[in-house]
């Protein structure tokens, strides 16, 4: 399939009806929270648009993001890679391997220099000159730097790519960093989550394909359309929080009644993501709906913020020695003050008698 | 490290350390002060009963002063009771207390807490307006009075902002709320907020003193 072929031409060749295409556009516009009229604009734009090249790089990651991406249902990954874009390099899905695979990446970069979309999942290790992660003899940092130079934009998929994620967690032995720490001169959109909601990944890609630009981002570089609200604010269990009804254990009456999981460590109040609205597995459910509190996986350093099972309002420090020392010092100074006072009083009484 | 991490971590630990240090310093210092020997025979049935009775009776204005002090006493009661309900009745607060001292209890519905917070804040505003407009009170007031009011009102206001998600992102508001409580903890032992621990001791001492002499309190 040629890069010069428009998306409309590509769809017609495959026998996809206009009706099906409009349904796809309406679903995607809805996912992106665009006004209803934008579905038509999206259809007209996509109809004429050239299929952009997409290069997908994977580094320090578990392939969970890729697994998530393949489970997107609207738009589906197949729809995107067969109809909307040309996925020219993705180790997990491509047939080519070794030299042929690297050659495909370099060819795609050369042919689409300055125009391709670079998608990255996984953190970038900078320790010992990037030797912790190398592909075909090149370090992850070097490949990313080179690939980013010719990219129109960079999408960091998953918390590892967006914020360093688990590889970046204390003590971070490989010196793992986020993509944005390596790529400084290109727009980077962070699609965080461990893994991200699949429709959020494909939704961002669809936005780029439709409008040729990245969506509006929050202060952490995440699309506000998906990361504009906390899990807590959109949670169907929120009324129980307001009523003061909390599950105390994972198998008590409160848990069975679907009460709020705040006491069990839910990080929903400080986690921004689309889980409660878009949900997972074709809108089946999301972690809280399945009975487990939110881990806060779409936030930076979520792995280092204390126990997943400690309530958000509890302390996240240990300091028995400090508190003990402070108490002992307080008692000692109090005793000292009393002793000084007693001596002065005794002295005054003595002077009065003499 | 985010502002919230700092508020929940190092700032919380050190503010509690300062609170413990200061409270124990002042309490031990007061409790170990030398008391003059009283060689007279006690004329009251029980010094403890006298102490407790005075703590209770002086928490309510005497009939002679009721008209002139009713307003101040009423708003004081409202914000003291309101603060107690908000601090000890809100589930996230209870969870924090449990994580610190291992003791917890059931909380109140969040709606009740929000209502009490609003009433408490209104009462606190009325209290400061009274202090600023009452000629005698204004004359008697110093930095300690105003700052103690500020560190008391700030957590209530910031807590309401957290609930309303008003003015900033939730985690920023939460961090500001926690930090405002930590400022209160640091100031507590060294300012007039210490009255919450010293007042029962002072009144009890007075009550025991009068009970020994058979005087009515």
Largest inter-chain contact set? A-B, 42 and 44 residues
How is the largest sheet of chain A built, in terms of strand order? Answer: 2-1-3-7-9
Oligomeric state of shown chains: heterodimer
Bin the helical content of chain B.
over 70%
CATH architecture of the largest domain in chain A: 3-Layer(aba) Sandwich
Radius of gyration of chain B: 20 Å
Instruction: Provide mean pLDDT of chain B, rounded.
Output: 93
> How many strands appear in the DSSP assignment of chain A?
9
Approximate helicity band of chain A = 40-55%
Main sheet attributes: strand count, strand direction, barrel closure of chain A: 5 strands, parallel
| Beta-strand proportion of chain B | under 5%
How far apart the termini of chain A lie comes to 112 Å
Order of helices and strands of chain B: HHHHHHHHHH
CATH top level of the largest domain in chain A is Alpha Beta
> How many E strands of chain B?
0
Describe the fold and architecture:
The complex is a heterodimer of chains A (354) and B (217). Chain A is of the alpha/beta class and 354 residues long. Chain A contains 17 helices and nine strands. In chain A, strand 5 and strand 6 form a beta hairpin. In chain A, helix 2 packs across helix 3. The mean pLDDT of chain A is 89. Chain B has helices spanning 3-8, 10-31, 47-57, 66-89, 91-101, 110-133, 135-140, 143-164, 170-187, 195-213. In chain B, helix 8 (143-164) runs antiparallel to helix 9 (170-187). The longest helix of chain B has 24 residues, at 66-89. Chain B starts with a helix and ends with a helix. The model of chain B has no long low-confidence stretch (mean pLDDT 93). Chain A binds chain B through residues 230, 232-233, 241-244, 246, 262-263, 269-270, 300-301, 305, 310-317, 319, 322-323, 325-327, 329-331, 333-335, 337-339, 341-342, 345-346, and chain B through 2, 4-5, 8-10, 12-14, 16-18, 20-29, 31-34, 91-93, 95-96, 98-100, 107-112, 165, 170-171, 174.
